[in-house]
Each structure stands twice: as C-alpha cells, then as structure tokens.
Amino acid sequence: MPRILGVDIPKEKRIEISLTYLYGVGRTLSNKILKEANISPDRRAKELSDAEIAHLANTIQKMGLRLEGDLRRDISQNIKRLMDIGSWRGMRHKKGLPVRGQRTRTNARTRKGPRRGGMVAKKKEPVKQAPVSKPAAK
Q1: CA–CA distance, 107 with 47 (Å, rounded to integer)
Q2: Of 22, 46, 83, 84, which is least surrounded by CB within 10 A?
Q3: What burial letters (b/e) apply to 104-127, b meaning 16+ CB within 10 Å?
Q4: Architecture of the domain made up of 3-62
Q5: Which of 77, 59, 76, 51 lies closest to 22, judged by CA?
Q6: Contacts of 40 (CB under 8 A, 6+ apart)
Q7: What residue spans in the chain does CATH classification 1.10.8.50 cover?
Q8: What is the pLDDT of residues 42-101, one digit of tens each?
C-alpha cells in the first residue's frame, strides 16, 4: 500500500478516490492536487511509481494544506477554546448535545448516545402473604 503523509491509501482504487482517505481531503481537493502534480485521476494507486508518490507528497506539502494531524489539532483546539470561554456552542460540546440548533426532544441519538432506562413501567407481581393459621377450637 502506498503511504502518503503517514497514511496507507488503498492501492486497488483510483488515485482520485484513494487521496480522500487523507483527513481533510475530499474529491474536489483531491482533483486539484492531482492536477497540480500532473497525474491522471483515472490511474490506480498501485500503478504509481515511488517517484510519483514522492512527487505527490511534495505537491501536497507545497500547497500548504492543513491535513491529518495538524487539522485534527486545530479543530480540537477550536472546540476547547469554545468550551473554555463558556460559549453556547462550547457548553453544548461539554454536555455532548447537538451544537448546531437541532432538536433534542426526539432524535439526536447519535450525539446523546443510547437511551438510558429511565421511567420504565414494570408490571408489579402480586405480593404473596403467608397463610394465617387459625387458633384451635376448644
């Protein structure tokens, strides 16, 4: 498997799709990178030589894109900043609730997690009483 920026990209897929396995690269950016590097997007990743892979990595670095670890770090720092200043969005991040105004009365299960067993109506079993013995008749 070819490695670009420390990420193994699938070799059987077209290079246009394989580059999207890098965090922060979508189809549009992938095509821009390939156009800049003069590599056909129709070629498979396994067809690229080591020199072409190195050229592709250099092209990505020359473009000055924030990808992979740098991008993840920036995003997490932005979220941490929002939480530290106590903004609305930061509080929603802390509580694990939807941040962008979605409803939470129903739905929002992805963000809130699985339902907890709150007020579940359980069927009560009748209480069995011990038989009362009658006093002996005289």
Answers
A1: 45
A2: 84
A3: eeeeeeeeeeeeeeeeeeeeeeee
A4: Orthogonal Bundle (1.10)
A5: 59
A6: 15, 34
A7: 3-62
A8: 999 999 999 999 999 999 999 988 998 899 999 999 999 999 999 999 999 999 999 998
Residues 6+ positions from 50 with CB-CB distance below 8 Å: none
Write phi, then psi, for 4 (nearest 5 degrees).
Answer: -130, 125
pLDDT in tens, 7-21: 899 989 999 999 999
If you compute the radius of gyration of the chain from its CA atoms, what whole number of angstroms results? 30
Task: Write the CB contacts of 10 (distance below 8 Å, at least 6 apart in sequence).
Answer: 1, 17, 18, 21, 45
In this structure, the chain runs to a length of 138
- What pLDDT shows up at residue 125? 78
Which residues, including other chains, have CB under 8 Å from residue 20's CB and lie 6 or more apart? Answer: 26, 27, 30
Helix (H) or strand (E) holding 2: none
